[in-house]
Structures are given as C-alpha cells and as structure tokens.
# Entry
Amino acid sequence: MFEDDDIFGDAVNVAARLEGLAEPGGICVSGRVRGDASGKLDLPFEDMGPQKLKNIARPLRVFRVRADRPGEPASVSLPFPALPLPDKPLLAVLPFQNMSSDRQ
# Structure
C-alpha cells in the first residue's frame, strides 16, 4: 500500500525482519527472492529454514547469502557498477509527523 510518501504492507515488514536476521554486513532473503535469483545471480545460499517473523502470520523460509570466507561480509556481483561511497559521513534528516495525542 502506498500512502503519501510511505509504503506499507507485508513486503516492507518482511524486508525489515530479514534485515534483523542478517549478520553485520550480511544478506538474508526469502525463499521467493532466492527462487527469483536462481539462474540470474551466481550466489551461494545457505538455508536457515522456516523463521517466525514478528507481525508476519506464517513462518517464512529464509536463506543467507554465504560469504566467500567465514567472518567476512557476503560479496555479491551486481549487474551494474556500484556507486562510490562518500569520503565523509552523511546524515539525512527527514521530516516527521507527530501522530501522538501530545501536540507539543
């Protein structure tokens, strides 16, 4: 669902929960994403089995993209060039809407 500049729904919740399951620098994907990537991206996947995710009605089969070497982040070859990282930290401040009853 789209409302103003926000996106809501199961896909957003699943993505947030998968991010929480991933190791620092790691990648976790759902079974559907793994299936969609099959034959298109040469990635080594490790089956983490069905996982119960907060606010998701049924367990979801989760796969971890395996790193080339243990203890290192997974490396993924993208079909497009990666954008360069800035040489200094950046901070984005987004506007928010007070949704509480306290309007101060």
Notes: Helices lie at 10-21, 31-37. The radius of gyration is 17 Å.
